[in-house]
Amino acid sequence: MNKLQYLIITTILYSFAGFAQLDANSAMGIPQVSNTTEMQNITGATEGSLVYNIAQKGIYVYNGTNWVSPSGSNWLISGNNGISSSNFLGTTNDVKMEIRSNNLPMLEFGRRETLNLYQNFPDYTDNDQPLVHLKGNGNTAALQFAASGASFYKPMFFTTTNGSFRLKGSSGRTDLFEIGSGGPSNDGRLEFIIGDDGAEPIIFKRYDYRNGKFHKELFRVQGSNNTANAKTRFGININTNEVPVDSEYDDSQSGYNIANSTLQVQGSVATAITRVTGSGNYTLSEDNHTLIMLSNRSLTLPTASSCTGRVYIIKNNSGSSLTISSYNNQNNSSSTSITNNNTVWLQSDGVVWQQINN
Q1: Residue ranges of domains in the chain
Q2: Has residue 9 got a pLDDT over 80?
Q3: What is the pLDDT of residue 354?
């Protein structure tokens, strides 16, 4: 006998037994009580007796000791009360659990293998990994957050039809930020976007727990001004003040420096330096900057058109003149040597290598 059959038969038996005084509001022959106190004061109830509790808007069954709600073992679409720590919404066997809307399985819960999400790639191979799968419509999905302070660009994680994954949201009420992947097959990229006027910065900070807990800026990338044609500026260590942690995340940017050039570094700069010994030809590459020539070796420069703007510093302490690829010296004449105990700075102008020091 199922629960429905049991309920119907018990109700019929109750109506014949005249278990309690029925008032004009009784329905389906089930006795009614006004509240839980009145229900608990009923005498003569036997196991399986039914009563309708008007205050609780529910049917209660007498289990021989107490009045209990049959809905206590079910989750109701109108909500539940009397829930204990042992109650849960889910499965007790190894099958996926779904939460649907418009009959779409928006959320799935289960092991990776149970959800058929195994892939032979690092971090996707643990079949026993517990997963919450935001499935959406099976092709794309999104997770949006409430942000009443944002005028536009409500924060959202979302996927795209080409398989990319992005985070987009509000910044400073009216601006936006976006972090995510993009690109066609085998041509992927990772993007960091800030907007929408020009000078909004992307800032990297470090946190320190001392001195009252503060942030210190490491570096920032931003536009030179609030125009569509703002130049890119990259500043390292240009704002060194200790700023108290902003619990509301709404500190103004006024008073912070924008880099004064495409790259501004307040501090030391290190470049590659190589001590060259041995014999035979030495070909310079993107791994070189400064060369200290300690033996007589011929030098080959890369084609000037392949690395416009690149700089090499070559100091000759080999004891004799060095042979090198052609460059234009201070007299704008072609030269193919560097004399002993001499240093030249060479920079590519995209056509030839130019000596730029005296």
Answers
A1: 3-73, 97-134, 142-182+191-195, 202-265, 273-355
A2: no
A3: 98
